[in-house]
Design goal:
Shape: elongated
Strand order of the largest sheet: 1-2
Strand content: under 5%
Distance between the termini: 17 Å
Number of strands: 2
Oligomer: single chain
Largest sheet: 2 strands, antiparallel
């Protein structure tokens, strides 16, 4: 068995355990909880909230519309998270005392307060001052929150680059910016893909909290459907399954990227 296969086995086992746990909970509810509550399952109605046909044309259901909003917010927030995290990490490692203090203060404040409180502050206090709408506020809140955690990942990745790489770049006549751009940062990303993927998964899950701002994401659409249909089990199981598919897809993409970017040892 190759080293690559051995490193993949724990991740495959973890994925299988997640699926088994979800299936076990569903079976438990089917066999005991739902019967005790005299609950009547209506799974056949879920399809109309995913897609439906009307006058010969297919249309997206509310859950798919919410999923699109969730993916849009998560994708933009992920890009902003990477930018904020990288800039913060560089400031923490800079020679500027002001830069280091600002970066350290930002990380400590964000990591020491709940995301929900930060969303309320941005939405009710800073959002109106800055003229941000709901979607922009949600993206900013998620980006700042995940950026504080990602900054430490970037900093660890930068510190993990051997000093000889910087010296080699300087010996080639590269400026400090070019050294980071062409030598340091590409190697850093190879090292931090697994923990950075965990942050991306956490960002997708945390995006459900923005539903408190009446953004019609996947969670909000699910809650509205439950209010209209009184089908909490079917709707929330479907929403959970959609989130699970997103996170498993991100994990699979991370494994593929890690395999593609890993430099083989000869």
């Amino acid at each position: 068995m190759t080293q690559y296969m051995r490193s993949r086995i724990p991740k495959v086992i973890a994925t299988l355990l997640q699926i088994i746990c979800v299936a076990s909970v569903i079976m438990l509810l089917l066999n005991s909880g739902a019967k005790a509550m005299n609950y009547h399952w209506q799974w056949y109605r879920i399809t109309e909230y995913l897609c439906f046909c009307e006058d010969g044309h297919w249309y997206r259901g509310e859950l798919i519309d919410g999923l699109i909003i969730t993916l849009k917010i998560s994708a933009i927030s992920l890009v902003c998270t990477v930018i904020i995290g990288l800039i913060t990490a560089l400031l923490r490692m800079s020679d500027s005392i002001v830069g280091r203090c600002l970066a350290r203060g930002y990380i400590e404040v964000v990591r020491s307060t709940p995301l929900l409180v930060q969303i309320y502050l941005l939405y009710f206090v800073f959002g109106p001052i800055l003229g941000l709408d709901r979607t922009a506020t949600a993206i900013l809140a998620l980006s700042l929150f995940q950026g504080a955690y990602s900054a430490e990942i970037f900093r660890a990745g930068l510190k993990g680059i051997p000093r000889g790489q910087r010296e080699a770049a300087e010996s080639l006549g590269l400026s400090r910016i070019d050294s980071y751009r062409f030598v340091i940062i590409p190697q850093m990303f190879r090292k931090i893909i697994p923990p950075l993927t965990n942050e991306a998964v956490a960002l997708v899950k945390n995006s459900s909290i923005v539903s408190i701002m009446a953004i019609f994401d996947l969670t909000t659409e699910g809650r509205n459907i439950v209010s209209d249909t009184a089908m909490p089990f079917e709707v929330w199981f479907t929403v959970a399954a959609i989130y699970l598919c997103i996170t498993l897809t991100l994990s699979a993409l991370a494994i593929w990227l890690e395999r593609r970017l890993t430099i083989p040892n000869h």
